[in-house]
Design brief:
15 helices; single chain; two-stranded antiparallel ribbon; mainly alpha; 329 residues; globular
C-alpha cells in the first residue's frame, strides 16, 4: 500500500546531510579558534544574527510562513533581558530566559492572529502587529524611548564566570548559539518537522490526513519567536544596550535578506547569509559607499544567479553532489 492510500506522509529525501555535517564541523572548529585571531565582539554579533536568521528560517524554510515582524521578537527580548538584568538585578542566564519567555508570548499572540490568514495577508498581519509593538516600545517607560536601555551589566554566569571578560562572554555566546542550532536541527529532523514540511508543500493534503494545521503552524511560530528572542537577549548582553533599531521594520527586512542570501530551508545557509550581511555592514561602516547599495546589488545577483541561495546552490551543484557521493562511500 502506498503512502497516499495508507494516509501517512512519506519522509522527504534528506538534503545533502553529509555535506552539511562537514560544513558544520568545520564551522564549529573555526568558531572555537576565531576569538584568538579576530575581534571577539564582531564575531559575537555575527553569532547573534546568525541565530536570529536560523530562527526565522525555521518558520519560512520549513513551515512556509513569511513573517515581516520578526524584529518584534528579537528586539522585544532584547528589551526584556536588558530590563530584567539592569533593573531587577537578575543574573544573565535568568535575564535571557525572561527575554525568551517574553518573545515566546509575543509569538503566541502574533502567530495566533497571523495564521488565521494565508499568503500576503498573513505576512501583512505580522508586519502590522510588529509596528504596533514598535510604537509601544517608543512610548513605554521601561524602554526609555529613543534613548533605549544602556549600560546593561553582563554580570556573572551562574554567579561564577565574569562575563565582563570578552573571552568568557564569547564562549558563552558560542555555547548558546550551538545549543540553539541543536534545537533547530532536532526540530526539523523530528516528526514535527516532517509535518511542517508537508504543510508547506500541500496544506490541503495535510488537512485531509487529519493534522491540525493551525496548531502546527502556531507551534512553529512560537518556537521561531522564542529562538529569535534568544538571539535578541544575547545581543543585548553583548553590546550592553537595547534600542528601537532592534524592533524596527528594517531589522525584519534584514533577517529576510540574510536568509534568502544563504539559502531558505538549509540549516547552515542563514548562518552564512548573516555572516555576509554583518561583515559588509562592518566593513562599509566607515566607507563613503552606502552599505545598503552594496547589499542590494549582492541581493539582486543572488536572486538572478543563485535562486536557492548560496548554500542552497552548493547543495544542488555537481560539487555538492560529488562530495555527498564521496561521503557515502
Amino acid at each position: 500500500m502506498n503512502s497516499q492510500a495508507s494516509g501517512t506522509i512519506t519522509p522527504a529525501r534528506r538534503p545533502l546531510i553529509r555535506v552539511e555535517t562537514v560544513l558544520i564541523l568545520l564551522g564549529v572548529a573555526a568558531l572555537v579558534l576565531a576569538p584568538f585571531y579576530f575581534y571577539p565582539i564582531f564575531i559575537m554579533k555575527v553569532l547573534c544574527f546568525a541565530l536570529f536568521a536560523c530562527a526565522f528560517n525555521l518558520l519560512l524554510g520549513y513551515a512556509g510562513i513569511l513573517s515581516f515582524g520578526h524584529a518584534a521578537f528579537f528586539g522585544g527580548a532584547a528589551y526584556f533581558t536588558a530590563h530584567a538584568v539592569k533593573e531587577w538585578g537578575l543574573s544573565p542566564e535568568l535575564g535571557i530566559l525572561v527575554g525568551v519567555a517574553g518573545a515566546a508570548l509575543l509569538g503566541l499572540v502574533i502567530g495566533f492572529l497571523a495564521i488565521r490568514r494565508q499568503g500576503i495577508y498573513s505576512t501583512m498581519i505580522t508586519l502590522a502587529l510588529a509596528q504596533m509593538f514598535f510604537f509601544f516600545c517608543l512610548q513605554a517607560d521601561f524602554t526609555h524611548g529613543e534613548d533605549g536601555i544602556q549600560g546593561i551589566p553582563r554580570g556573572r554566569l551562574f554567579g561564577l564566570i565574569d562575563l565582563e571578560n570578552p573571552l568568557y562572554m564569547y564562549f558563552f555566546v558560542l555555547g548558546v548559539f550551538l545549543a540553539g542550532m541543536l534545537v533547530i536541527w532536532r526540530v526539523i529532523h523530528s516528526p514535527f518537522g516532517m509535518i511542517l514540511r508537508s504543510i508547506r508543500e500541500n496544506e490541503n493534503r495535510a488537512i485531509s490526513l487529519g493534522y491540525s494545521v493551525s496548531r502546527y503552524k502556531l507551534g512553529a511560530f512560537v518556537m521561531s519567536a522564542a529562538l529569535a528572542g534568544l538571539a535578541g537577549g544575547l545581543k543585548a548582553l553583548v553590546f550592553q544596550f537595547a534600542t528601537l533599531t532592534d524592533v524596527s521594520w528594517q531589522m525584519s527586512g534584514e533577517v529576510v535578506l540574510m536568509t534568502l542570501l544563504g539559502g531558505i530551508g538549509t540549516l547552515v545557509g542563514p548562518v552564512f547569509g548573516a555572516a555576509l550581511v554583518t561583515t559588509l555592514g562592518n566593513y562599509f561602516a566607515t566607507s563613503e559607499l552606502p552599505v545598503t547599495l552594496v547589499t542590494g546589488v549582492i541581493f539582486m545577483v543572488c536572486v538572478l544567479v543563485f535562486r536557492r541561495g548560496m548554500i542552497g546552490e552548493l547543495y544542488a551543484s555537481r560539487l555538492g553532489k560529488k562530495l555527498e557521493r564521496r561521503a557515502e562511500d
